[in-house]
Amino acid sequence: MKQWTRTAPGQFILWLFIMLVASVSFASGFASLYMASMDFYSLSESELEQQAIQLRAYPDIENLTSQILYNNAMRYKDYAENQMDFYDIAYLCVVDRGQNDKVVYEYGDEKALKKDKPRFEQTFYWSEVETATAYGDEESDDEATDSTEFSIEQNSTDKERTLIGPYTTTAVYDSENRFATELRFTKDLWSVRYYIPAIFGMSAVVLCCLCAVLLHTAGRRVGTEQAFPGFFTRVPFDVFSGIMLILACAAALPLDFALNMSTDSDEWLVGMACLLAAALYLMSLALVWLREVVIRHRLGGVWKRSILAWCWHLAGRCWRGVLRLPLVPLTAGVVLLITVGEFMGILLFADWNAGALMFLWFLEKLVVLPVIFYVALTCQKLRTHAHSLAQGNLDTTLDTARMVGALKAHAEDLNSIADAIDTAVGQRTRSERFKAELITNVSHDIKTPLTSIINYTDLICREQCDNPRITEYAQVLHRQGERLKKLLVDLVEASKASTGNLEVHRTPCRVDVLLDQAAGEYEQRLAQSGLTLVLQKPETGLVILADGRHLWRVFDNLMNNICKYALSGTRVYLTLAQAGTKVRVSFRNISRDPLDMPAAQLLERFARGDAARTTEGSGLGLSIAQSLTELQGGKMELSVDGDLFKVVLSFPLSETQPLTPGPAAAEAEE
To answer: What is the DSSP letter of 104?
Structure first.
């Protein structure tokens, strides 16, 4: 079901269901509001029917009563009877409540009051109104149209309405034809008055669920969770929103027509249909807009593709470009804009007779402008010197002879910072040198007795002894002594390599030959660890400038690391290739233990791939390999992808040979 809704037919059927459920929801909602406003839940059925008749008949009876009262229907009986026939009235009675219930007009048989026919009774109010009528001279009609002055003799006042009221009109209709629609509609709504709100609630819940499914599948396709652009995604979001707003405004006409419909009009149902259509139309536009918002959000941002975002990005670039300008031209531009603005303000709003204002303005500019440009020039010098310090040029000193106040103090602080940085760097260098010398001296002092211990334990192991435990203990001492000796050698070498105190003699070196030696040296050890070595190299030898002894130590550390930590039963790949002017050597293997630390941390001193530290090793191998590689002008890159452990060594190709790309260059480049 989830995948089916992402297909085109599924989306189409989902839209049809949404429109159907929305129609039911809106119709039941409008009906519920109408019934609540018409007191369907507090009045009886007969009271509601009488109310419907009242609403339908009120404008007709009001119009008929006004005609009877003002046209003197007693004198024009034929006219009045024609009106009764037109309104389908069997009996009509107008009573003046202001004159002791005097019957002003009566039509038809009073017995109709006792019959079970639609009946209407309403009290109307009129008051006395005086209107003034102007009579102009016939000979001066043309002049009257251009003038509003009239003499007293040309004006008179008439009383158009002399009725005071109130008047009560009672009408009995001859049939129910005039109210058939209202009565039938009222009865139908009365019978389902409690079901319609329930239908509205259930349909609203279903509609919300369907809309949620539609928005959830926005931009999704079958078989993938990746988001894809929609039909309107290429349109800038603000332009798209504006189009949606314009289309929404098109619903104003049917909404205005529906909201202005009166309940007594024959077009009331048409108005309700217009209101329902407008609501569905607006809901469709809202869903299209929300769906596009969801798609753009999944693609990386709602406002990412919009004119406003582009303008904001352009403004940001312009502002950053302005900030990168030298301070003096930037200050000159700002001052010029302010000066022109002030001058234009004086021209527009100042009185030219007040010459003192212009004089003071010119005097102020003569005093302020040199100060502004002096500050800008000094700040530019401070900025340039700070940038020089950031680049590591600590030997430069800023001249503070022509600086004053806070600017001079700031310049002196910058000079002090340079001296402080120089002092700190010197102290750190001396500290590193002291640590290297300390490690070297201590290691040398330890190595002498350790060598004696190793030699004597070796002699004990060679002696014939009746007690086998003594021989076993001597072998343990010998093995641990050799391990301690290697650790001391690694410490000394790591210290010298990190401080640059190691002697490096770079000569042309065949990398492929050293790689073959490393493969042959570790062939047996790799086989014992259950590893298969795959060596890939070009047919033409590659030469680099390196120290062969140190380069071999790098290969030795990396191969030793592979033997310790690679997964048994897997392959180890050694690849040599040429990539442009670089020679790349890569070592790849599958790790036996999960690598739960980032690649950068593995290059630190004493870092171990196995957290349990169950294997022998000091954790200095990779750190020493990186330091030795950099001392020879190369670069070492380490990457971890799941259990894949990869180290790539890059060295500049020696100029003693032509550039001949190897067959594995593409693989090494990756």
So the answer is: E
Which secondary structure element, helix H or strand E, spans residue 173, and what is its range? strand 167-173
Q: What is the dihedral of CA 142, 147, 152, 156, to 10 degrees?
A: 70
Calculate what percentage of the chain has a pLDDT beyond 90: 6
- At residue 323, the pLDDT reads 59
Whether the Cβ atoms of residue 499 and residue 485 lie closer than 8 Å to each other: no
35: enclosing H helix or E strand: helix 8-37
Strand ranges across the sheet with 644-652: 532-536, 571-579, 582-590, 644-652, 635-641
pLDDT in tens, 57-101: 888 888 888 877 776 655 556 666 676 766 778 888 888 887 888
By CB atoms closer than 10 A (0-12, 13-18, 19+), residue 56 is buried
24: alpha, beta or left, given left = phi > 0 and alpha = psi -120 to 50? Answer: alpha
Residue at 83: amino acid letter: Q
Strands 102-108 and 582-590: unpaired
3 state DSSP class of 603: coil
What 3-state class would DSSP assign to 305? coil
Query: Which DSSP symbol is given to 221?
Result: B
pLDDT tens readout for residues 334-372: 777 787 777 777 766 666 555 666 777 778 778 888 888
